[in-house]
Every structure is written in structure tokens, then in C-alpha cells.
Design a protein that fits this description.
Low-confidence stretches: none
CATH topology of the largest domain: C8orf32 fold
Shape: globular
Radius of gyration: 19 Å
CATH class of the largest domain: Alpha Beta
Mean pLDDT: 95
Oligomer: single chain
CATH architecture of the largest domain: Roll
Length: 291
């Protein structure tokens, strides 16, 4: 599938902002199953500085600074990408999950590179509740593909999608207490469950096709940035991409932008402003249309 992606973020303030410094993860990654044919990031008012760099995890990070006084700041990213459905090695999926643990078996190929994805992170704490919840799926000796898929099915069945239940700072404990959340929360919960048993799992940020191909259902979360999870398969170095929000493996409707330990590593836009404004509003619009 080929998609044209547009992501617009607009901040409005009740007083002038004299200086705005920001960083965004808005440019899709080039991957074996995803090719980026073009991209552009614009900022209004025009920034005095705008540049792209590659961060620790290989994501494209966009930096900008606007020093012109303004009460509205708009960041728009556009890109065209070609996406295929990733194909995984059957033997890699059949490896017992308890033989895919980089911290317990440092002799696994490239295990040292992915140990941080098996450790706790600020938004994906390895709580006792997460460990016990995951234990039902992670039965010793069970194939990793089957085990993580079962966990995905259970999370989708046991937790409801509710945009009002959580915030961007909600913890794993909050998600269990509410029994609900959004894609970011479902991803963090999945990470906590998997990592608490030693698996390496990463938070993936990206988009879903807003207008699905004919005959295919529209997925939850297609009206904004989406989040899912990748699980390391050590025998091949592949990462199995699962989406607990929609209860499926990622396919050619998923546009991958960035990955990290959790949302805190790869928010679409974050920054610092210098102002005496007391109020601000944020509007985000996303469109991922098949070309």
C-alpha cells in the first residue's frame, strides 16, 4: 500500500510566546517493509532553525526554534510511504518465549543491544500486577509468537478503549485501576507485562490508514497518532509487531514513525516555550490516505 500522510499540530496561546523550542518524531522510518518516498516538515511562524537528526534508536528527530513572537504555532509533517505486511520466520515464532530473554541469556545474538527494552521504563513499570497478569499467557515453553498473541487477545478483551479514562502521564497501575485507556495505554500495559518476564519489547509510534482500502474495516485509533508494540525474536533479529488496541498483528495499514522504551522517548511533538501566557490549546489532525 502507498499512503500520503499529513500530521498537523496547532498550539494556541492567550499571550505572545517569545521563544519556542521543539522536537518532533514526525518522519516515518525507512525499513525492510516500509519505504519513504518523500517527506517534509514545516513550522509556522518560520523558525530561525530547523534541522533533522537521527536519535539513539535510529529515529528521525526534527528540531526547531521559533523566536518571532506568536500566539499560534503550527507544525505540519507530510510524507509519502509504501508499506508491505511484514513476514516473520516461522521458526523464530516457534522458539519458546523463555529462550528469548536478553538479560538471562546474554549469549543470544545482539542481546546486548536490546537489554534496555527488557528493563523498566518510566511509563511501563514492571509491576507485580502486570507480571501476574502476563503469567497466564507466558507459560514456560510456549512458542513466543503464540504466547504474546494470547496476551494481546486478553488485553483487548479485558480492557476497554476509552479516550476519557487516562492521560499521557497515566501509569500501568492507573490502567489496571481504570480497566480502560487508549492505544498508548494498551501499549504500555503490554510492555510492562512482557518485560516483567524478561522479554525485550519496544514501544512503536506511528499511524493507521484513516481511509481503509475497500472492503477493510476502519481500525480504532486511526484519527490520531497510534501506538503498538514490537517483540524481539532473537534467532532472526525480527520484531513481531502486535497491536493490542485492535487485537491483531500490524499489517500494511500501519505506518511506522519511531520506536523507543515508551511514549516518553518518541512523542510526536514536545518542547519548551518562554511566555507569560496563562492558557493554551492544542489541536491535532491526522490523515493517512491511500494513494
Amino acid at each position: 500500500m502507498r499512503y500520503r500522510v499529513r500530521h498537523r499540530t496547532t498550539y494556541s496561546y492567550d499571550e505572545d510566546v517569545n521563544d519556542s523550542l521543539g522536537i518532533g518524531h514526525l518522519v516515518p522510518r525507512t525499513l525492510p517493509w516500509q519505504q519513504v518516498t518523500s517527506y517534509d516538515v514545516t513550522v509556522s511562524p518560520a523558525p530561525g532553525d530547523l534541522s533533522h537528526d537521527i536519535d539513539y534508536y535510529g529515529n528521525v528527530a526534527t528540531y526547531f526554534q521559533v523566536t518571532e513572537p506568536h500566539r499560534k504555532l503550527e507544525i505540519e509533517a507530510t510524507s509519502e510511504v509504501e508499506v508491505e505486511t511484514a513476514v516473520y520466520d516461522d521458526a523464530a515464532l516457534a522458539v519458546p518465549w523463555d529462550r528469548a530473554l536478553p538479560l538471562r541469556d546474554p549469549e543470544l545474538p545482539d542481546a546486548w543491544r536490546f537489554t534496555d527494552f527488557a528493563l523498566p521504563s518510566a511509563l511501563a513499570e514492571q509491576t507485580d500486577e502486570a507480571r501476574l497478569y502476563a503469567a497466564t499467557s507466558l507459560v514456560r515453553g510456549r512458542p513466543v509468537g503464540e504466547a504474546v498473541s494470547d496476551l494481546m487477545h486478553r488485553i483487548n478483551a479485558d480492557f476497554r478503549y476509552d479516550k476519557t479514562a487516562t492521560t499521557v502521564t497515566s501509569t500501568v497501575e492507573d490502567i489496571f485501576a481504570k480497566g480502560a485507556g487508549v492505544c498508548q495505554d494498551f501499549a504500555h500495559l503490554t510492555l510492562a507485562c512482557l518485560r516483567s518476564h524478561g522479554l525485550a519489547a519496544r514501544y512503536v509510534s506511528g499511524y493507521l490508514a484513516t481511509q481503509p482500502p475497500p472492503g477493510r474495516e476502519r481500525l480504532v485509533g486511526a484519527d490520531a497518532s497510534h501506538a503498538w508494540v514490537g517483540i524481539w525474536l532473537p534467532t532472526t533479529g525480527e520484531w513481531l509487531a502486535i497491536d493490542p488496541t485492535n487485537n491483531q498483528w500490524a499489517d500494511d495499514r500501519y505506518v511506522t514513525v519511531a520506536w523507543g522504551r515508551d511514549y516518553g522517548d518518541v512523542p510526536p511533538v514536545k518542547g519548551v516555550i518562554f511566555t507569560e501566557a496563562k492558557k493554551s490549546t492544542l489541536r491535532v489532525s491526522v490523515d493517512v490516505a491511500p494513494v
